[in-house]
What does this fold into?
Amino acid sequence: MHFPSLPTALLLTLTLHSGVNAAASDDKKTKPSDPCTVASSTGSFYDLRSLAILPPADDQKKPAKGVKTDDWHARGWDYHDGKANFTLNICAPVVDPIKDVEGISHDLWKNVSAYYEIGSKKYSLGQQSSNLTVRGKRLVLQYTNGSPCGKDKNGRAVKDAEGEDEKDKNGVRRKSALISFHCDKDPLATGATPSFVGTDPDECSYHFEVLSPAACVTAEPAKQSVGPGAVFAIIGAIAIIVYFLGGVFYQRNVAHARGWRQLPNYSMWAGIGSFIKDIFIIATSSCAHFLPSRRGYSALSISANGNSNGRGRHRNEDENRLIDQLDEEWDD
It folds into this structure.
C-alpha cells in the first residue's frame, strides 16, 4: 500500500482549517461602537463614558466615595446679565429631574441633557445624545431639539428656511448645544471643567468647552473576536499540522520511507493499534469465563501423567506467549 503524501496532507490541512474556522465563528461577534466613544480615521480613540453622570441604582443606598452624583454646571457670565447658569450632562440626561421646560412636551423632559434657567423658566438646549464626532483635532458632542429659539418683534417664534437640523416639523428653529472637549494634561486634574463660550444672536446655538483628562487620546481596548476555546483549537491544529507534515517530509526525503511508513513514528502508532486489539481480545476472553456453559459438564483435558489441569496449563501458556509478543513489539 502506498501513502499518497501530498493529497492526504492537503486534505488533512483543509479539514483542520475548517474545524478551526467553525470554532472561531462561534465566538466571533461584530460589536458596534460603545456609546460615548469614538475612533478617528487616524487611529485615535476617545472614551468619555467616565464623564456621564448616572443616577444611582434603586438598590444602591449610598454612592461610592469620590463618585460624582450631581450634574455638571457652567457659569453664564454676561449671558442675560449673569442671570443664567447652565446645567448639563455628558452623553446622558441630566440627573436632577426638571419640570415645566419651555416649548418641550412632557414626555421629553426626562431626556434633556442641557438647559439653563432664567427666573422661574427653564430652557432646554437639546435632547440626550452619545454620538461623538471628531472634526480634525476637535472632539465634539451636539445636542439638538431643545426649546424654541427667541421670538421676533411680533412675538412669533423665529423661523428660518435654512438650518434643517435645528428645525422641527413646524419649521420652528430650536435651541441646540455644541460641546467641544479638550485634553487636560494636568496629572492632578480629575473630572471635568465645563465653561460657556457663547451663543449666536438668535440664541439658537450654544457653544461650550469641557477640559478633562478623559478627553485625551487613549488606546482602544482590544476586541477579542476569538474565544479561549478557539485559541486552544488553533494552537492544537497548528501543532498537529506541523507534526504530520514535518514527519512525512522527513520520513520520505531523509529516511526514504514509502507507504504508511512515511507517517511520523509509524511503529509507535502501529504498536498502539496492536495493543488496543490485544487488550480487547484479553477483555473478551476474560469475560467469556463468566458466561454460563451450554453443557452440564465441562470437558477436562487429562495429561499423560493423569493430571486434569491441562486446560489451565495451556491457558497460562497462551497468556505468557501473548505477553512476550507484546514485549517484543514494544522493544521494536
The chain has a mean pLDDT of 77. DSSP finds four helices and eleven strands in the chain. The helical segments are 5-27, 228-253, 266-288, 310-331. The radius of gyration is 40 Å.
